[in-house]
Amino acid sequence: MHNVDWKIECRNLGLILLLAGLVGWAVGLLPWLLFFSSLAYIGWTLFQLQRIQSWLSQKADTYPPESKGLWGDVLDGIYRLQRQGQEERLRLQAAVDYLQDSFASLDDGAVMIDKRGNIEWSNVAAEKLLGLRYPDDQSQQLVNLIRSPEFIRYFEGDEYSNSLLIDSPHNSHYQLQISISYFGRGSRLLFARDVTENNRLQQMRKDFVANVSHELRTPLTVINGYLETLSENIGNQGNVQSIDITPNELRWRRAVDQMLNQSRRMEGLIKDLIALSKLESIPEDSKDMPLEVEPMLQAIREEVLTAFKGKREINLECDSSLRLVGNSDELRSAFANLVMNAAKYSYGDGVITIRWYGDTRHCYLEVEDNGEGIDDIHLPRLTERFYRVDKSRSIETGGTGLGLAIVKHILLRHQAELKIRSTLGEGSTFTCEFPSMRALAQPHTA
Questions:
Q1: pLDDT digit string (tens) for 163-181?
Q2: Strands across the sheet with 322-326, in order?
Q3: How far is residue 211's CA from residue 277's CA, in Å, rounded to a whole number?
Q4: Helix 293-307 vs helix 328-344: angle between axes, to the nearest 10 degrees?
Q5: Could you tell me if 364 and 432 are in contact, meaning their C-beta atoms sit under 8 angstroms apart?
């Protein structure tokens, strides 16, 4: 393709007008010849524009009309841009087809939604899980086809950081996990995953743990009773402890005491498993009531000091005017777990500080210790069941590995969050952060 300079086209026009001017001057018709020459040039230009317009109205793959000079250059340029645009469209369509084919092969339902909430495309799994049929439902409002109130609130809330668990609107036997994300200019991509089997297995696991824990509780109580009786009677004569204990009796006492310790440890584990199963299976009830936090913490402090025989210093810093709305038994269990953990993992002369206070947004229960601390790599997993930072240390202290998991579940039932800060060799701080709606100021007495 030749690149014709505009200067050349202007020069050609100048030559035409000059020639017309010379001829017109020679024959005495200078104005007329200049006028008709300009009119002819304008007509030629309009003719070329009409050819371009006719060509553009045809199919995009037709060749441009033959032309020379500037107009030929313009036609070739337009044709080249047409071909580039067509190739780009084909490339984008291939990418869209590849993406849709990839989504079509998924077991999860996939739905593309435009910025107005209309369905653009959905895969086969979306018909099975959500009842959406493509292309029959194309351009339909998604909320007109999925009318679950939970889903509509989730879809129109524009807060998609968490997924939504609902029963399938098409088949109630399916339990779905819905997740939505934005892409492009306000378009959204919805995924629906069938979690029925996962939920069933989780429920089976919970039921199994709960049932086994309940079944083991009775035989362990009997075993503990007999072991305690044996421990009390070995080396005793007539309810008076014998001064001269034979080596054989001493060996038996050690064995019985070890069995009793392990049996009590197993009993504590079962109690924690039962407590955790109840928290997971029993829905939140209406037992929430205003609680006086300071007396509860005072009682917990006395229990921990008694359990450790006064080897720990426990300080209380409480806002006595601030009450907490919640389940008394559950919150007492959570707070006691945190204080007991702080005592277990502090040194013999450890100092534990319990704080209860609030601000305009939250109220806080803090348990701070100056113990050995926890490495940062362990902090994200501390609330997992049976997770132990130091297994040998946990066995020595008699921990079950379920205390913080119980605390986490109790706090979740109270819309609260457990935050942990720790530095190796300096100690740890466990903070229960409750929303302000759980705080209640102490009424003033006259």
A1: 888 888 888 888 899 999 8
A2: 289-291, 322-326, 439-441
A3: 10
A4: 40
A5: yes
